[in-house]
Write a structure and sequence with these properties.
This protein is an alpha/beta fold. It contains twelve helices and twelve strands. The chain is elongated, with a radius of gyration of 20 Å. The termini are close together.
């Protein structure tokens, strides 16, 4: 069981500088951090980000200032928040937002360096020219791999060996929606399981989706990768518990907030790498010369308290493979 305490950090006043080469003696570079969630729910990610910056020699409020913007899980806020960072003349924009926020950031500026975390292939989206040589003003970490969807469905199949239809909650406004649908179809076919996609991009549609899950007696739920869902992780966990349905999610953040199970790269590794790349750019490395990273460590997290609440017995073989078990 993982037990880590995270210290709270205070955001200080930022010194403005419009140039990446700091002509004024003693001036701090200013970076803009854009998060998809609220500030109070982003502590774990911010700690890891600052660790990455520190590794490159940058300490907040000592020799670098950070301007924070948080979308509170609302996609439509990204353009406004990014515009405020651009107008504030930050030296680097950290788009720790997923696909929609990254696309909004790259649309807003072609000159300010952007360090992104994205769940889609950035090449197919036109964000970078290639993973090895991004070629423009953006680079970062891509978590996209079709095998992740297949692995999550495989884990749900192991949880429900008696069969039945698996529901997949999908945000149709996410640019990844078609790719997730096709990946899910291929994975379900290979596993010999039926699946049904439930589309939800609003709170009301999420509730309606669970009404459908209950009415159709679906046996399990896969919540597809989406920043909108991450920002509503407590709501989703509560609905799953109320409806006694086993669910698997993208990030361990869900499981730490009452979700049953997750399988994904270590989200803190991703956030830490964003800090490292931000530090390299502040030292003069061009984004075009920093290859897009892909995670190398993955974790399976299981919440036994949630399993007990929904009356589910986790197979011993699955528990043995878990990297973190919450009791």
């Amino acid at each position: 069981m993982e037990r880590r305490a995270f210290m709270a950090f205070f955001v200080g006043a930022a010194a403005n500088s419009a140039c990446p080469v700091y002509a004024q003696k003693g001036a701090h570079p200013v970076v803009g951090y854009l998060g998809f969630d609220s500030a109070d729910k982003s502590t774990e990610l911010l700690v890891a980000f600052r660790e990455g910056l520190s590794k490159m020699g940058f300490i907040e409020n000592e020799n670098v200032a950070i301007e924070y913007r948080f979308a509170d899980g609302k996609y439509d806020r990204f353009p406004e928040l990014i515009s405020s960072l651009v107008q504030g003349h930050v030296q680097v924009i950290i788009a720790a937002t997923g696909t929609n926020g990254v696309l909004a950031a790259t649309a807003a500026t072609k000159t300010i360096p952007i360090v992104f975390a994205i769940a889609m292939d950035p090449v197919s989206l036109g964000v970078v020219s290639s993973l090895n040589r991004p070629g423009g003003n953006a680079t970062g970490v891509s978590m996209y791999t079709p095998q992740l969807v297949a692995k999550r469905l495989e884990l749900l199949t192991e949880l429900t060996p008696e069969g039945g239809t698996i529901a997949i909650l999908l945000n149709p406004t996410n640019p990844n929606a078609d790719a997730i649908s096709s990946d899910s179809e291929a994975a379900a076919k290979s596993l010999g399981r039926q699946f049904h996609i439930l589309k939800a991009s609003t709170d009301q549609q999420i509730v309606a989706a669970f009404d459908k899950i209950r009415a159709e007696k679906y046996v399990a739920l896969l919540v597809s990768p989406d920043a909108f869902y991450i920002a509503r992780r407590e709501q989703l966990a509560a609905l799953c518990e109320h409806n006694r349905i086993p669910a698997i999610y993208e990030w361990s953040l869900f499981v730490k907030n009452g979700g049953l199970m997750s399988y994904a790269p270590l989200i803190t590794d991703v956030s830490r790498q964003l800090g490292v790349y931000t530090g390299k750019i502040l030292k003069g490395v061009a984004p075009a010369d920093l290859p897009v990273e892909q995670p190398t460590r993955f974790e399976l997290v299981i919440n036994l308290k949630t399993a007990k609440a929904i009356g589910l017995s986790i197979p011993a073989s699955l528990l043995a493979r878990a990297d973190n078990v919450i009791e």
